[in-house]
Specification:
about 15% strand, about 450 residues, four-stranded antiparallel beta sheet, about 45% helix, binds pyridoxal-5'-phosphate, Aspartate Aminotransferase, domain 1, alpha/beta
Length: about 450
């Protein structure tokens, strides 16, 4: 039997909204949202009473409504501690922007900017002009343009160079990048017919040469990014491939993926061919990302021959894939930092974190072990450990970086999973990775020690 007296005794929505706590909630979350939360709380209370449970007190109802409002207000996009050991984590938004980029983006958000206006002449300008000069200076290319991301850059470049025609690509380069970017699918959507040559592990000049015919629109070379074939392998060098393409009268499109503008070996990372190298070696168009090793916001750059960049800019897809003023402002500020390579690691967070040396991270781990153990209380034991960081985003997948961190052991698998879940649920979440029955917090990307400790202290005991 439902307890009719208890149901009748529940306060009304209006009565609850007039309490001090919920009146303040109306100020903070708005009247409509607060009233909705109160109504839902009362519905739950009625269901509970009908199920034979005791009637909740008004204080309980208020607390539940506030909890629901707080939870709905908390964004999943809130800042977190990326202690996963992957510096450019695609699921965590890749590169952290340089302060100069953040300032430029903020200014562009707040005020009008001459995005498509030439301030000298007063005539209409092009939004890409803000980046064209910088990109040409940094890559040695004749011309440059940009679109939403590198996937879009590949799509539009393929479409502009080869729609209705054939694109020759090595079987060893028909890759899938995370997030369902598969080269054969992109080629199909770009309207080019895929002509695969060679084998998975070996492709020779004669393979390309045999495939060249009047229907050929381009040769495509793709950086394998997230995998590496080792052993009995052969690929055709950029220079030879460019010569081959030009013999056949077609352009060479080189998708570099991450793409770097400087030699990273000066910061102890593996040397990757730079965009400038690739341009010099004869690629006609080169595509690369803005938010991988380059350390800027999401963007896809296309640099190379003037006539081909013009063809990309004329392509109707360009309007659909264009970049807004906020990102253009951040990209200009990011690229400007590359004019002063001496100070790059200091100013560009991606590089600063990648260049961090193990002894420094180990010292940080040792410093934090005791306070972290104290914050976690009985939930985990804490040990300093050596680990290896990944660059992420498919850049240099095999070349991990020696790092250090904290190994949190919580007993059984369920306790460990619960600890990881509670760390994710913190107001400022803490993300690590599970390895050998422990949660490892790689401290390479930690720059705010006090913030981490404050976050951990909010963990339910
Ligand atoms: C990452 C990558 C892409 C996609 O770039 P996004 O910036 O993620 O769109 C395309 N090609 C290669 C080779 C890549 O490594």
């Amino acid at each position: 039997m439902p307890d009719h007296a208890a149901l009748r005794a529940l306060p009304s929505v209006d009565q609850l909204l007039r309490t001090t706590a919920l009146a303040a909630a109306c100020e903070r979350f708005g009247h409509a949202a607060t009233a909705m939360a109160v109504r839902r709380t009362l519905d739950d209370a009625r269901d509970a009473i009908r199920a034979g449970q005791p009637a909740p007190l008004p204080e309980g109802l208020i607390a539940q409504a506030l909890l629901a409002l707080e939870a709905a207000d908390r964004s999943n996009l809130r800042p977190l501690f990326n202690l996963t050991g992957t510096v450019l984590h695609t699921n965590l938004g890749r590169a952290l922007l340089a302060e100069a980029a953040i300032e430029a983006a903020t200014a562009a958000m707040r005020e009008a900017a001459a995005l498509e206006l030439d301030l000298d002449t007063g005539r209409r300008g092009e939004r890409d002009d803000h980046l064209r000069v910088l990109l040409c200076e940094l890559t040695g290319a004749e011309d440059a343009t940009l679109v939403n991301n590198n996937a879009a850059a590949v799509l539009i470049a393929l479409n502009a160079l080869g729609a209705g025609r054939e694109a020759i690509v090595s079987r060893g380069e028909l890759i899938e990048i995370g997030g369902a970017f598969r080269m054969p699918d992109i080629m199909q959507r770009a309207g080019v017919r895929l002509v695969e040559v060679g084998t998975t592990n070996r492709t020779h000049p004669k393979d390309y040469r045999a495939a060249l015919r009047p229907e050929t629109g381009l040769i495509l070379k793709v950086h394998p990014s997230n995998y590496r074939i080792e052993g009995f392998t052969a690929e055709v060098e950029n220079r030879d491939l460019a010569a081959l393409a030009h013999e056949g009268g077609v352009p060479l499109l080189n998708d570099l993926g991450s793409g770097t503008l400087v030699d990273l070996s000066r910061w102890g990372l593996k040397r990757e061919p730079t965009v400038r190298d690739t341009v010099l070696e004869g690629a006609d168009l080169v595509t690369f990302s803005g938010d991988k090793l380059l350390g800027g916001p999401q963007a896809g750059f296309i640099v190379g021959r003037k006539d081909l960049v013009a063809a990309v800019n004329r392509n109707p897809l360009k309007r659909a894939l264009r970049v807004d003023k906020i990102r253009i402002a951040a990209l200009v500020a990011t690229l400007k930092l590359y004019r002063d390579p001496e100070r790059l690691a200091e100013r560009l967070p991606t590089l600063r974190l990648l260049a961090r040396k193990q002894p420094e991270i180990l010292a940080l781990s040792q410093r934090l072990a005791a306070p972290v153990a104290e914050a976690l209380g009985s939930r985990a034991t804490v040990e300093v450990c050596a680990c290896r960081s990944q660059i992420g985003s498919g850049a240099l997948p095999i070349d991990t970086l020696p790092s250090a961190g904290l190994r949190l052991a919580a007993g059984g698998g369920t306790a460990l999973a619960r600890l990881a879940a509670d760390l994710r649920a913190l107001p400022r979440p803490v993300l690590g990775h599970i390895a050998d029955d422990a949660l490892v917090l790689d401290l390479r990307c930690l720059e705010d020690e006090a913030g981490l400790l404050a976050s951990l202290r909010a963990l339910p005991r």
